[in-house]
Amino acid sequence: MEILVYPDEQLKLESQPVEEFGQQFQDFIDRLEQTRLAGPGAVGIAAPQVGQPIRAVIVDVSRMKRPVANHGHLVLVNPEITEWEGYETGREGCLSVPDYTGNVIRARQIVLQAQDRHGKIHRYEMEGFEARAVQHEIDHLDGLLFIDRVVSRRSDIFQRKNYK
Length: 164
Ligand code: NI
Known about the structure:
Structural class: alpha+beta
Bound molecules: nickel (II) ion
CATH class: Alpha Beta
Shape: globular
């Protein structure tokens, strides 16, 4: 699937909850994962990035060069952060903002509740880069990009030569 790129107006939409976990949704999740893997190896992708304004994201930080605490490959449906703890600044990139990275302040630890691709509810305690990736992807569901989160567009956004 094609990835929408800033400033596409569809990236600003508030996404709707997923209520049907049937074959059509399963096929969509498979195609979303293929799209994530077809690119430069993004750690996450959100449904609205391919023009589907529904509350589903995929996050997988298990293959980082430097290992980080993680829960492996996650399909997160209707995710809700229920607790936040601490703050730290870190560098983020996004398939929808391919030419830039940015310094963004995020909670260091979160408690997350989400359904899996079959609708089963799970609770996760996350920290560090995985927690950051999840916060980034949930922002997509609320129509926000990392460039909307930087403190200063002049000093906290950096041009990159090529993705990754
Ligand atoms: Ni993104």
